[in-house]
Amino acid sequence: MKAVCWTGIHSMKVEQVPDPKILNPHDAIVRVTSTAICGSDLHLYDGIIPTVKRGDILGHEFMGEIVEVGSAVTRRKVGERVVVPATIACGNCWFCEQQLWSLCDNTNPNADIAEALMGYTGSAIYGYTHAFGGYAGGQAEYVRVPFADVGPMPVPDHLTDEQVLFLTDIFPTGYMAAENCHIQPGDTVAVWGCGPVGQFAIQSAHLLGAERVIAIDRVAERLEMARTKGRAEVIDYSQPGQSDVVEVLKQMTGGRGPDACIEAVGSEAHAYGLMGAYDKAKQVTRLETDRPHALREAIQACRKGGVVSVPGEYSGFIDKMPMGAFFNKGLTMKTGQTHMHKYMRLLLPRIEAGEIDPSFVITHRLPLDEAPHAYEIFRDKRDKCIKVVLQPS
Amino acid sequence: MNPSETAQSQVPAHLAPEMPSPTSPPADAMTHRHMAMSSIERLTTLLLGGSFIASGVMRRGWQQVALLTLGAGVSYRGLAAKRSLAATARAATQPQELHRAVTIQHSPEVVYRSWRTLENLPQWMEDVQSITITDERHSRWKVRGPLRTTVKWVAEITDDQTGRLIAWTTQKRSQVATRGTVTFTPAPAGRGTVVNVHLTYQPPAGPIGAWVARSTGANPETQLRHALRRFKEIVEAGEAPTIDGQPMGK
Question: How far apart are the CA of B135 and the nearest CA of chain A, in angstroms?
């Protein structure tokens, strides 16, 4: 089969590899009909997150048709059309019982690496480094899906792939980020980053009753999408007079600050000026693994007693964390890999009811063969690229 | 009362006194601790360190870091000549005590039964090749040792309390001497069962065996950690996760 393989930093290749096989009794094999490139795949593309190996098949946003099931699979059947959550969960451990699916104890074959890095391992993630299990991802014609009774969710035929594909990751991720804000009537929510997760965080904040949503970015077409599709007020920090985001937010919110701040940027934040250069230098020399510019700004901007919600991805260590501001303002931080299994089941009915059509975020539809080009334009934000969907056939 | 204390007090008296205390190392280890290196040992150590560094230079990534670190460490030993590798190996042959805990989301009865079904042990103890049950209390074990050797022993269950505790020891004239207890204690508020394993372990094949086992990564601490993880995975999820055999590119 054809698969998108990581062959080095800024080097993706579509290669011919053997078809996946059932390896464990709870496995299934899915023929992929649609798959997408996630912003977090770009961290692997950029070589920011360690333990990717040459030849690894990437991709954790995919859906398709079940073509084979293992001997212990009882609930899923060959022929079913399913979306597959990006994280892999066993369904039986204490964390799964608590609906904390992304913290599953039992799916990472490389738990040793994760324990060395973090103390404990969370769930594995498809195509997302060997610290997260090393499972072959879904940017391929076929993919092996472990614990097939637990993860894959059947979707109704009248919804298109594009309407349901993002239930695998970015819609639940934006939604959980907004839910973590505990939005109250009258609340203003500020969202850093208008990439796909930011767009879904904006929409979800509205779904959860926010009075106002303010979106922060510097890419014109992303701000435009936030404004027109997400009904957000926008701050373009590349514009003169808007570069001091903390001050602009303060004045937009009556001197009070946003009640909740969603940081949908993560470890490769862009920043102008001295602080931006400082973080970039430290990351390049491996003195810090993550560039936390947006996180610092969110902590600074948040109103006293508010919530900083972080769907943006971090892998290691950050520097100059404004702990004094965080402590003295009595803030709460909520974060983590998304509990996809819970939210995809919660959000499918909202798509069916027409409350949201997640396909609004797609800007590019390309054949799987063009994945290397797709990674390039997505990373460089060229050609007004916001979200790429790849079709294997 | 602390549940683990309850479990401790149930350890049979005949096992407890034999276990050496970790705070007072046996006299043998003490005498070797500051033994100086002979010049031949120094030369050998330096050559060994040099060969690690040489092979490290030719590799990349984690292997490079590991080999260079190892090479630097061994060479430093040779240069500083504080304590010989042989003395280190002798110290490693002292009985080792291990403790490890894991929590499993099932009742103590289910977890106990999974452990007590010895026939299933090779599923979660990766180095065990076979277990032959000879009677209710005795079993013959064949285990992969370091460098493709096979180690055999006969294990005897010395205490067996359904849903609570299993204690065992290897019989005399076995190739390894090991004693252990595993306790199954209910965790509060539906959080499953806490499994505590205490192990006293005498490495096989004397000092060389211990040194080889350590340097090939097959040390009992790692083995116990992996065994308990797999045990939990199999009891909770019904299978141990794997990626062996999946496709990858070039």
Answer: 32
